[in-house]
TetR family transcriptional regulator C-terminal domain-containing protein
Amino acid sequence: MDSPRRSFTRESAESRREALIRATLTLIGRKGVQAATVRGIADEAGVTLGLIRHYFDGKDDLIYAAYQAHMSQLTDATMEGPRRAGEPAAHQLARIVRASLTPPVSSPQAVGLWAGFLNMVQRDPRMAEVHSRTYYDFRDRLQALIAPALDEAGEAPSPERLRALAIACNAVIDGLWLEGGALPEAFGPGELVNIGLTSVGAILGLTLNDPGEEA
């Protein structure tokens, strides 16, 4: 009889914690990280100050969790999109490039939130650790897609070379993501995706074709 009740309590606690993270991201996206006070977050979430302190060790702890959530959501939205079973690895890689450079991943809201956190990343060691962890997560997952795409093309780069290729491809994607979110009106429909596919393909020596919006 007790076990189901404990399970429900854990789910409820996690749901409340996630709601506080969402409220924090909403507030930072609208007013900037300086507005993310405990009271401001509580007002945004419609909860008491005590509830925030119950789930987080202060405001900074909640902001760290919010930044982790934002970056992880972007990575998951990029990497976990629809794919066809058995399709070539290069086609899967092209899907990742497309997802990285189109909404909701590349958008003024997503880039604005990232920019709002950036000052903390530069001055706060714990925030820098969160940034490092999410960067390596995306880059490692990108590298895991590059390896089979090159293998299909008859290439087998060394681990060192594969790492360098992943760094370079990630840098291209990041740069286009930033410009596309900061200045969306500066680019025509599909322009960033085409540039991304051409650039990543050139780095890897592959032809990456736009897979379109559907899997």
